[in-house]
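In response to a reviewer's request, we include the raw inputs and outputs for one of the modeled complexes. The two entities were modeled together in a single run.
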Amino acid sequence: MKSNSTAIQRVANKKPHVVLFQRKYLCIPYSIFLILFIIIPILLIVYYAFSDATGAFSFDALVGFFTTWTKINVLFISIFIALQTTLICLLIGYPLAYFLADKKVNKNAVLVTLFIAPMWINFVLRTGATRDLLTWMNINGGNYPYLATLIGMTYNYLPFVILPLYTTMLKLDRSQIEAASDLGANPFQVFIKNILPQSVPGIVSAITMTFMPTMSSYVISDTLSEGKITLLGNYIYLDFSNTAWNDGSFMALIMLVIVGISMLFTRNKENQDSKGGATW
Amino acid sequence: MVKKIFGQIYIWLILIIMYLPILILMAFSFTDAVYVGQWNGFTFDLYPALFQNKEIMIALGNTIIIAITSALVSTLLGTSGAIGAFYLKKGFRKSVDLVTQIPIVNAEIVMALSLTILFVFLGQYIFHAQLFSFWTLLIGHVVLSLPFVYISVKPKLQQMDPSLYEAALDLGATPKTAIRKVLIPEILPGILSGFLLAITLSLDDFIITAFTRGTGLLNGEANIETLSTLIQATIKKRPVPAEMRALTTIIFLAVVVAVVCVSLYRYYQGKHKKTHAQERMSKL
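The model returned the following structure tokens for the whole complex.
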């Protein structure tokens, strides 16, 4: 312990320090960084989306998007493939997460890590590996570009679905499930009326982890379909290569709007869950 | 019982299917055929060839340099940001939280394009120069990982006993010492996991790198290549190059070692869970 007098001195010295330095000041560099490199760039996207190459205000990109069938097509294909990938990943990942979290089936926590571990192998390399395997099995971009892309997407996003679902499944009230079947519910009823409502938060975050990244992915669709499938991500990449900033910004703006809508949607869902939970 | 058997079969089946592409690539790293599926006899030749391949080694070096520098910068910035924001008034804190969420929920390619446009805009109208370099790439990677550092540190601050810091001040520590000796050690696990997350994100990144890179680093006058951009450029039209198969094996083994270490660490941590806060307080 320090001696009494120095402690008093330090207390006396405390005040100027408090005035000069407060903990909240630590936020200043962080906030500046956020404004410079997150907020301003997004505002620039909006500006570039509604201006032409000379910087003057213009609706060219907007009109171009709604009058060019190929651009609308890119949006539709992206939404379609994202929906399919999300659905397939959920169908595979849901039972998997359920079994992994069930103590009667799996007692080994390392197994869960094994499902997440592929994420640590370089993602482009993994995509290449998937492509090479599919080519060997004669499913390549030449034959089945769509199928190959879908398989590649499922491969890549499955871990992102398993993780949130597993976390939710761990919290499942097992005694409630047992009570449901004791009270005479058949396994199907137990699933629909008890397990499924309990796991909604996991499903919602699994969807958000898969849907948007699939729509905006570039490497997977480009490599596996050999450039035959153009998603929003591929389109923006093309605009970037051609330095077509205005057109690319408009596409990015569309994606921002979709992100915004999905955020509102998931936020409402999460609020509902925290209120309700399972109603048996 | 039926459920148990079915469940285990299902788990292992999906696990095998998930690892199949990587395992096959690894198996074919012991033969020097051009295509996967073609076996030219067993050989270790690809491994020395990998280390003699200058392009791959340069890309590997760049990847590591960027991962470490960007992780250090984002850990420093993100930790101080999280501490600062934690003591802000509620309204300000909420807005910092909200802006932090943007890069997490936003599509990566949108963030990449927005940064690129920022650098193009600044270069054109303010600096009158071409800005793309290692520094723009670094900023890109920091934007990518910064929010994840912030959200790993934040819960640790919430769990922390708020009176610890006050007690340190009452015991005569200056605010800076109190932060360094009391606050930082309390939230250290969050800082470390944020740092590791930042490294992982940076190592894996393709889109932000492709958009924001310029010339420099080990590439000198040429555009910076990381493993991701190099592999992407080579596999665009051709199968994964033979040496890359050897690289896959090495990365896979590294991941296995990491998984084992993490599992052991968790096991160890679970056994010895203790707060050393009081001990530190007495040392002030």
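As requested, we also summarize the result in words. Confidence is low (pLDDT under 50) at residues 272-280 of chain A. Chain A has 13 helices and no strands.
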